[in-house]
Design a protein that fits this description.
Length: 315
């Protein structure tokens, strides 16, 4: 009787095991980092956030006592879109909503789900929804326009089919998901109308007004800091800046003062720092206004030639 050798055990390399572990750990919920007390917003915006943040405690009254469970059978899910200029507190607000609901937040960036392999991105999206449900976490899509953008109507290549497939899967999952989903975007104009209809609340985040700017300056001036700063003066002097701009301006000014061995942070350092930020934003807006995109149809042979010469990448 012939003796059969025992199949050799295939051992995965540490690198392969690390990749698999990393894939399994992509969607991990975390404790919210901010509360409603941490965010400074115009009152109208904060009122809208409060309406969302108190959803759970008012849900029984609305659906059960007031009878909306009969007229809105599939509306127990709530999609919330936080949109507006960068640095205006959208991500902080998402954390604050989750914290007020007493739940963890599961943050999904497009880089976490995008795959170079056709068909893998929709699978990753599904994994994000499953992870949120399994952990009872608030699902939060940051920079959501990357995944909720308009579908391709004139499909000419495989990547267009993949994009539409991804959008279709996202729509289906949103329809089925009976829980909170929060989105944040700087570019709401890129959203596909089908997604807009499925999101029940849209909250606009504007740049802070003078009163909010004053509170933000006060918040970002440490109590231990020797300085001659006047929050009211700064708020009045500089318009068109976000909370993130104010935070960066204070830190940049402090490091310059430290480098120059100053004993206090003089307001002129802060003035200079803010003016640099405003100048960079103006330059960015001017450059964007000058950008024009020309689309041309090219042959498959042309694309292959460009790739062979190191001028492009096949997707």
């Amino acid at each position: 009787m012939p003796i059969r050798s025992k199949p050799a055990e295939t051992k995965q390399s540490p690198a392969t095991e690390n990749v698999q572990a990393k894939d399994e750990e992509i969607f991990i919920p975390q404790e919210p980092r901010y509360s409603l007390d941490d965010i400074i917003l115009p009152q109208a915006t904060k009122d809208q956030i409060m309406d969302v943040a108190t959803y759970a405690e008012n849900s029984y009254r609305v659906f059960e006592i007031w009878g909306f469970k009969h007229t809105h059978k599939y509306s127990k899910r709530i999609g919330v879109n936080l949109y507006g200029a960068p640095g205006t507190g959208k991500t902080m607000a998402a954390h604050a909503i989750a914290k007020n609901l007493g739940r963890k937040i599961l943050i999904v960036n497009y880089a976490d789900i995008e795959s170079k392999f056709v068909g893998e991105t929709p699978k990753n999206i599904r994994k994000a929804f499953e992870a949120a449900k399994a952990t009872n976490s608030i699902l939060f899509f940051d920079e959501a326009d990357a995944i909720l953008s308009k579908r391709v109507t004139n499909m000419t290549q495989a990547v267009d089919v993949s994009v539409n497939q991804t959008r279709s899967v996202m729509l289906m999952l949103m329809n089925e998901y009976q829980d909170f989903i929060i989105f944040a975007t700087n570019f709401i104009s890129n959203f596909d109308p089908a997604f807009m209809r499925r999101i029940s609340v849209h909250v606009k985040f504007d740049l802070p007004d003078e009163e909010c700017r004053k509170k933000l300056w006060q918040m970002y001036i440490p109590a231990q800091l020797p300085n001659n700063l006047d929050a009211a003066e700064l708020a009045k002097k500089f318009e068109g800046i976000s909370g993130s701009d104010i935070s960066n301006a204070m830190l940049n000014a402090a490091f310059k003062a430290a480098r120059l061995h100053k004993n206090e942070l003089d307001k002129n350092f802060v003035f200079e720092s803010v003016e640099n930020i405003l100048a960079s934003k103006a330059a960015n807006e001017n450059n964007n206004a000058k950008v024009s995109v020309e689309k041309r149809k090219v042959s498959e042979e042309y694309v292959k030639k460009q790739v062979a010469e190191g001028k492009g990448t096949v997707i």
